């Protein structure tokens, strides 16, 4: 019950008001995964940015199980299997950006898209995390069963041979 695994991998491209960038992002995510992405829409009005509710501003795709693990390997290879300690949150999730999609193995340059980056998020879980999402008798995951930053870092080192930059602590932040 203590084994950690990848629950899902989420890829996200934010385009803002630029409809052309959004269309390129949809094509890019389809090229990377082979699955059509979902467009994200604004929830509130921000007059300074020219946003109104319902306006599409980005696209995302979520992969689970074997597809997620295979894609995670490719995304980490695009980062040369190097992550910063800052890429991990206190719940053990990992989030990082890829500046140019052509760094991802198996993805070729498309002149229609140009150069575009994306955000990747890996969500980790253990067996038993279902209790927080089930319909009947929802409960919190006990503190001792949650995944912390250190356990997530060890998992990534052992499973994907990831090197962690940013070292032993927050000495550089002081």
Explain what the structure shows.
The protein is 24% helix and 24% strand. With 174 residues, it is of the alpha+beta class. It has a single domain, classed as 50s Ribosomal Protein L5, Chain: A. The protein is globular, with a radius of gyration of 18 Å. The N and C termini lie far apart (38 Å).
Q: Uncertain runs with pLDDT below 50, 5 residues or more?
A: 170-174
- Give a quick account of the main beta sheet: strands, pairing sense, barrel closure: 5 strands, antiparallel
Shape: globular
Count of alpha and pi helical runs: 3
Question: Domains counted in the coordinates: how many?
Answer: 1
CATH superfamily: Ribosomal protein L5
At the first level of CATH, the class is: Alpha Beta
Distance between the termini: 38 Å
C-alpha-based Rg, rounded: 18 Å
How is the topology of this model organized?
Layout: E1 5-14, H1 19-33, E2 38-41, E3 56-64, H2 65-78, E4 82-84, E5 94-98, E6 118-125, H3 149-160, E7 163-165
Parallel strand pairs: 4-7
Antiparallel strand pairs: 1-3, 1-6, 2-3, 5-6
Key traits:
174 residues, alpha+beta, 50s Ribosomal Protein L5, Chain: A, five-stranded antiparallel sheet, two-stranded parallel sheet, 3 helices, 24% helix, 24% strand, globular, disordered C terminus
